[in-house]
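We close this part of the discussion by returning to an individual protein. Part of our work consisted of pairing the sequence of a single chain with a tokenised description of its backbone. No coordinates are needed to read the tokens, only the vocabulary itself. The amino acid sequence and the backbone structure tokens for this protein are reproduced below:
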Amino acid sequence: MQGSANLNIMIKAARKAGRSLNKDFREVENLQSSAANVAEFVARTGKAASQLLRDELTGARATYGYLDPTGETDGQDPTRRWIVNPLEGAANFLHGQPHFSVSIAVEHKGQVVSAVVFDPAKDEMFYAEKGQGSWLNDNKRVRVSGRTRLVESVLGHAVPFGAKRTLPATLKDLARIMPECTGLRASGSSALDLAYVASGRLDGFWQREGARTDLAAGLLIASEAGALVEGLRPGQMPLEDGAVLCANNQMFAELAKVIRTTD
């Protein structure tokens, strides 16, 4: 795909941040004997990647607004903003698990129009632009799986950590869905889960709460690959509420029927 100027900026920035993350990730294993040292190291790593991305993206598009996990900065152009997570899957990184990503999206007038999810550990760059499909690395088109039955599916989900308000309902979701599918995967990275739905590695994904910075890029990549993406409950908006239900066309209704059963 011949990407826009914005997409090229995003890919370049994601790769630069990914190189920084990979370099630091190689040091994490050596620090595992001290949890405090690892946590401090990962915090510095995330901060460095965050600053690198901010410099790259705002340097290229200084008028855009900017949203990342630390907060939001208004831009001179009120119609456009970057939505960024420099280390989506930080808990995996903290524990030496090579499954994390750099997530970057451009929002125009409230709609995500360009998206990148980069997995630096595996050197996989998922990207999409509205109306142009979804892609992986050097112009490999990706599409959702063709499986039609929930019983054949492998699904991704995000279990809220700690005593989050949606944990009891999520546990009910798991009890309902586990007998109906082949398997569940809680990978620790919503952005990569959505990219995996886009590429057919997962057949569907759901979660009851999530941050805009975790979801923005992955939602566009999934939908451009042919996935149906809706709020988990009637009236919910995936990006605004963080409550997401996503699957291929053939399986969506069956998955929705199970997940949307009255609590």
In short: The chain has two domains: 5-142, 150-259. The helical segments are 5-28, 35-60, 90-94, 167-177, 190-198, 212-224, 238-241, 249-259. The chain has a mean pLDDT of 92. The chain is about 40% helix and 25% strand.
